[in-house]
Design brief:
124 residues; mainly alpha; two-stranded antiparallel sheet; 47% helix; flat
Length: 124
C-alpha cells in the first residue's frame, strides 16, 4: 500500500497558506526576488556604522577659521563646495537627496517582425 503521508502534509501546508496565487498581479507575490539574510544584515550594519560615524564630531578648517562639527556636516559642506565649483556628480547627488530621483520614461511601443538580419563587415 502506498504512503500518502506526503500528500496529506502538502495539502495541510497549502491550506495554511490560503488561496492559490491569482494570475497576474498578486500582493503576496515577491516581484523583486529574495534578498539574502547576510546581505540584509550587512546593509543594516553598514547603515548603523555610517550613522555612528556621522554623529561623531571632528575639528576642521574653513579658510583660516577652525570649526568643530559633526562628520556628516563636514560631508555635506564638502559635497556642497564641489557642486558650487561645477562638479556635475555633486549637483546630481544633492538634487537626488533633496528631490528624489527623476522618473525615466520608458517607451514600450514598437513592433517585432521576427526577422533577424546579420551584416558581415570585413576589415583589413
Amino acid at each position: 500500500m502506498a504512503d500518502n503521508s506526503n500528500a496529506v502534509k502538502s495539502k495541510a501546508k497549502a491550506a495554511k497558506r490560503g488561496k492559490p496565487f491569482k494570475k497576474g498581479s498578486d500582493p503576496r507575490r515577491n516581484q523583486k526576488g529574495q534578498i539574502s539574510k547576510k546581505r540584509l544584515e550587512f546593509n543594516r550594519n553598514l547603515r548603523e556604522l555610517l550613522v555612528a560615524e556621522g554623529e561623531k564630531e571632528s575639528t576642521g578648517q574653513i579658510g583660516d577659521k577652525t570649526f568643530r562639527m559633526k562628520n556628516v556636516e563636514w560631508l555635506v559642506k564638502s559635497v556642497w563646495k564641489k557642486a558650487i565649483k561645477g562638479e556635475s556628480w555633486a549637483v546630481t547627488f544633492i538634487a537626488e537627496r533633496v528631490e528624489g530621483r527623476i522618473m525615466q520614461p520608458v517607451d514600450l511601443k514598437g513592433q517585432i517582425d521576427g526577422k533577424l538580419t546579420i551584416e558581415v563587415i570585413e576589415t583589413k
